[in-house]
Design goal:
With 252 residues, the chain is an alpha/beta fold. Helices cover 37% and strands 15% of the residues. It is built from ten helices and seven strands. Strands 1-7-6-2-3 form a five-stranded parallel β-sheet. Strands 4-5 form a two-stranded antiparallel ribbon.
């Protein structure tokens, strides 16, 4: 039995709210009880036209405060929610609690978000908008320690629902980095310089392709920019990303 199947036996999807662990039935959307569903900070209002995060009520512009101050390598980003306390608890259960069924739920949320953007004409039909889905890679040592890369599991679900090919063998993370949470955006970019690479012989898979990167969280954009840099250098035509959650629109 695969590790993921074993974990799904220990943490059966559909029985408990993935946020507060309240008992629910399988009819609940996104494995959330009614209270948590209502408390999630969904990105349903104004969003940054560059990174996709929810815009603050104090921000009259179309760009978030971060994107107004920083230039990004990627083309465009999309997000499903703000990274609040409930969203954080869900991601921590997935990343550190081995509750891998959550990856499928986040994949469902991301897919529904993309479909909603198609419906309002913000992006093309998914089959035309993107050629390849690529999860943001983790270092092989960290993946072995954890047993999985959460971005890869989420991307697998988005690929399954959308029919867009997912490739986890194109980009690799070549070295560990220390925790980025306490670093400034500039320090994060310096820390991530040269960390990602396109695997030898995979360049032809990127030539002229429209790429959709998938990750769980977007904060400063340093990681997405670092991956986008190597993808563009290998011939990608366009690199967009989508994340489950993004940091708040605040002045740094």
């Amino acid at each position: 039995m695969k590790r993921r199947e074993l974990l799904d036996l220990l943490f059966p999807p559909g029985l408990y709210c993935m946020c507060c662990d309240k008992i629910i039935d399988k009819s609940r959307p996104y494995n959330l009880c009614n209270e948590c569903l209502a408390e999630f900070k969904w990105a349903t209002g104004r969003c940054c036209i560059k990174c996709g995060k929810s815009l603050s009520e104090r921000n009259p512009r179309d760009l978030c405060f971060s994107c107004a101050e920083n230039t990004h390598v990627y083309n465009r980003g999309y997000s499903c929610s703000e990274y609040g306390m409930l969203e954080k608890s869900v991601i921590y259960k997935l990343k550190y609690g081995s509750e891998t069924y959550i990856a499928d739920v986040l994949g469902d949320i991301i897919y529904d978000r993309l479909v909603s953007l198609v419906r309002i004409g913000e992006i093309e039909e998914l089959s035309r908008a993107f050629d390849v889905i690529i999860p943001v890679p983790s270092h092989r040592g960290r993946k072995l320690e954890r047993g999985y890369n959460q971005a890869e599991l989420i991307a697998e679900r988005v690929s399954e629902l959308s029919g867009i090919s997912m490739r986890k063998d194109i980009v690799e993370r070549t070295s560990h980095t220390k925790a980025l949470r306490s670093l400034t955006p500039d320090a994060r970019r310096a820390q991530l310089a040269g960390v990602f690479a396109v695997r030898s012989g995979r360049e032809q898979l990127l030539e002229g392709r429209k790429i959709l990167l998938v990750d769980d969280i977007y904060t400063t954009g340093a990681t997405i920019d670092a991956v986008s840099t190597v993808l563009y250098a290998a011939g990608a035509a366009c690199v967009d990303f989508v994340s489950f959650a993004s940091g708040a629109d605040v002045v740094k």
